[in-house]
Structures are given as structure tokens and as C-alpha cells.
Amino acid sequence: MEKQEVLNEIKKAKNAHVLWFANAVALSTGTDPGDSSVPKKHTECTFGKWYYGAGQENNELESYRVIEIIHKKLHDKYNEIFAEFEKLSSEGFFEDITLRDSPKQQKFNASIEELKVISKELLAKLAELENDL
User: Fold this and answer.
1) Helices and strands in the chain: count of H runs, count of E runs
2) Domain range holding 47?
3) How would you class 13 by CB atoms within 10 Å of its CB: exposed for 0-12, middle for 13-18, buried for 19 or more?
4) How many domains would you assign to the chain?
């Protein structure tokens, strides 16, 4: 694959991640983002398909290899958040306005913040990969 094609694929992967992330953050408001945000294995999302598919031609680069760990960590954290969202939703948690500042809500929001940190780390590593290419 030509260098520009690889960079275009990375850009598509980044865009897919940003869209997915926006849906994931919607959980913090009690919004069910629908099927597009149901947890998937890190190998099955749009980004993961690129990473474990066409992206493998870059696996000699350290900046490429470290992405795997961060990406998996992102999915693991999201799976935790989604499970908590499902539990809280079934309890009617998001409909009860009196719970908005509760310890449960604060814990849930803290998990969303952790997800944001991991996401920024992933995007930074993708930028490094782009520079290395």
C-alpha cells in the first residue's frame, strides 16, 4: 500500500474512533446511543478491523505496536461503563433527577473521564504513527 493510502486509512480509523467516542460519551447523560455503541471486542470495531487487517503492514513501527495496548484498554473501560449504564438504566437511575449529583453518578462520570483520557492517548499515538510514516 502506498504511503498516502496508509495515511488515509489512519485518518478513516481516527474518524471512526471519534464518532464511536461521541456515542460512548452520550451514555453519561443517560442517552442510549443505540446499536452503534454496543460493546464490541477491540478486534471487531471499525478501527480494530483496520488495525488487525490492512494496518498490520506497519507492525514494524513501535508507534504502531503500542496502539494495540491502548486500544484494548479503551474497549475494556468502555465495556465496564456500558455494563454500568445498563444496570443504572434498568434501575431508572437516569430518570430520577434527585440522583444527578449522587455518588453513583459521580463514579459513572469519573469512568467517562477515564475513557476520555484513554481516547486522547490513542489519538496521540495515532498522530505519532502518522509522523513516523
Assistant:
1) 4, 0
2) 3-132
3) buried
4) 1
Q: List, for residues 67-86, the tens digit of each pLDDT value.
A: 999 999 999 998 888 888 77
CA 49 remoteness from chain centre: 14
What type of residue sits at position 100?
Answer: R
Q: What angle do CA 66, 84, 51 make, to 5 degrees?
A: 25
HSE-CB of 126 using CA atoms within 13 angstroms: 26
Burial, 71: exposed, middle or buried (Cβ in 10 Å; 0-12, 13-18, 19+)? buried
Query: In sequence order, what are the residues at sequence separation of 6 or more whose Cβ sits closer than 8 angstroms to the Cβ of residue 75?
Result: 39, 40, 41, 42, 45
CATH number at 83 reads 1.20.120
**Taking the model in full, what pTM does it have?**
0.81
CA distance 133 to 128: 9
CA 73, 16, 116, 127 dihedral sign is positive
Range with lowest mean pLDDT among 10-19, 20-29, 107-116: 20-29
Taking only the tens place, the pLDDT of each residue in 72-123 is: 999 999 888 888 877 877 776 666 555 667 787 788 889 989 999 999 999 9
Grid coordinates given for 129 = 504513527
